[in-house]
């Protein structure tokens, strides 16, 4: 069956219970088909190096968590019971790794991590070939399955009741809004179809959110010249 990106994006939802926590929340969803996966290359390395340089210039030795967007994300985590000192918003976790160098994972993950750091925005990617049904951002019931690893072995976790999670028909795909992705839908060297989520709160306006999305789409197009891209903005009216 041919994938209908527009229809799939239209099926994505944010539960009103999540927006009650943060009415200023918006998610920019981007689908990409025809990606060229694989290990890091000259393009992904250049993007990461540029992001590291920009972050060092922006933050110096200062505390990254005081950036307005990251401070807002810390407040959002506290609103559903998470402790951001232990489970940090993904963009903050990445920025804290800049002094020692950002991780090098694979070309697709490295590309979106570079955009995340450069624009100070939580950003994740999911393999659409392993995604089942519509993407939904919900407050967890607590019985959802979350596939991850511990000590190098696969394990099943369950989010806490009320925790904000992205999920599909099979289970939770990302815990604590943007803290950790499941192993089932993570990007790999075999990923050719993906969905990317860019998470914005009030301090990041729609213009800045669009700029981050535009840079991601440009980078994906440069990395995979035959890629087909679609997008949809959810939330905040």
From TrEMBL:
Keywords of this entry: Ligase
Q: Which organism is it from?
A: Streptomyces asiaticus subsp. ignotus
Q: Which domain of life is it from?
A: Bacteria
| Stretches assigned to the B3/B4 tRNA-binding domain | 71-225
Entry GO MF terms: ligase activity
Q: Does the keyword Ligase apply?
A: yes
Q: Name one Pfam family in it.
A: B3_4
Protein name listed in UniProt: Phenylalanine--tRNA ligase beta subunit-related protein
User: PANTHER family of this UniProt entry?
Assistant: CYTOPLASMIC PROTEIN (PTHR39209:SF2), PTHR39209
């Amino acid at each position: 069956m041919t994938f209908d990106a527009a229809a799939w994006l239209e099926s994505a939802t944010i539960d009103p219970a999540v927006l009650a926590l943060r009415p200023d929340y918006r998610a920019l969803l981007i689908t990409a088909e025809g990606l060229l996966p694989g290990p890091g290359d000259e393009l992904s390395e250049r993007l990461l190096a540029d992001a590291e340089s920009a972050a060092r210039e922006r933050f110096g030795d200062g505390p990254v968590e005081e950036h307005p967007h990251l401070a807002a994300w810390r407040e959002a985590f506290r609103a559903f019971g998470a402790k951001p000192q232990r489970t940090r918003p993904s963009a903050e976790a990445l920025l804290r790794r800049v002094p020692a160098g950002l991780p090098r994972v694979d070309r697709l993950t490295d590309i979106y991590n570079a955009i995340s750091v450069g624009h100070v925005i939580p950003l994740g990617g999911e393999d659409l070939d392993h995604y089942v049904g519509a993407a939904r951002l919900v407050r967890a019931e607590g019985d959802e399955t979350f596939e991850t690893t511990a000590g190098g072995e696969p394990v099943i976790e369950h989010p806490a009741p009320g925790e904000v999670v992205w999920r599909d028909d099979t289970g939770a795909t990302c815990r604590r809004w943007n803290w950790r992705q499941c192993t089932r839908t993570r990007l790999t060297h075999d990923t050719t179809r993906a969905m990317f989520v860019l998470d914005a709160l009030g301090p990041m306006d729609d213009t800045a959110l669009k700029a981050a999305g535009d840079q991601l789409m440009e980078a994906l197009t440069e990395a995979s010249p035959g890629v087909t891209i679609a997008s949809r903005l959810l939330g905040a009216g």
